[in-house]
Design a protein that fits this description.
The protein has 182 residues and is α+β, with helices and mostly antiparallel strands. Helix content is 43%, strand content 21%.
Length: 182
């Protein structure tokens, strides 16, 4: 971690380290996703929060370990979002983003603030960001994150299969084509 980081970020990272330690102790399957994952895949923008995707089967473990009651498949712990499933409507379609067996098998490790952490597959993160499709005009970085992440090696077969899995072809394919990902 660099010395010029703000106190807020240092505090966020310290909370993240504590959560990471607890998850490892309890053998909880988790991975960083969204903006923090984009950062780990090469996005230059600063991280303002950390989103963690957790396998659905670990909800009870987390409730027990952290003393929580989790509603709506997500909760926030010390300003870190723990998500078991995201469901959102985009252009008339419902997208459900969650950790299934195929994603779990492809989790990788990347450095985030000097720590080796599990990260969702690049392709799944690209699909999520494209489905959200928010730009700077909305104060978000989804499209820029895709541009930055596409500098990595993309498994196009997996990407296309996952686009179909999430059932977001009509939404995601044109965006990824415009960004020269597909």
């Amino acid at each position: 971690m660099e010395f010029h980081e703000s106190a807020d970020i240092v505090s966020l990272v310290n909370r993240f380290i504590r959560l990471k330690t607890e998850f490892e102790k309890m053998r909880i399957t988790w991975a960083v996703f969204a903006g923090a994952a984009a950062h780990a895949y090469g996005s230059a923008r600063k991280i303002t929060d950390i989103d963690i995707l957790v396998e659905n089967s670990d909800i009870r473990k987390i409730e027990s370990v952290l003393g929580l009651s989790i509603r709506d498949k997500q909760t926030t712990v010390d300003s870190i979002d723990l998500v078991f499933e995201i469901e959102f409507k985009t252009k008339g379609k419902i997208m459900r983003f969650f950790m299934d067996d195929e994603m779990r098998k492809r989790l990788g490790y990347r450095r985030l603030y000097g720590l080796e952490v599990p990260i969702v597959p690049l392709e799944d993160n690209i699909i999520l960001k494209a489905a959200l499709g928010r730009g700077l005009d909305q104060g978000k970085f989804d499209l820029q994150d895709i541009i930055d992440m596409k500098k990595n090696s993309i498994d196009y077969e997996y990407l296309k299969r996952r686009i179909k899995f999430y059932n977001v072809e009509e939404i995601v394919v044109p965006i990824l084509a415009d960004l020269n990902v597909l």
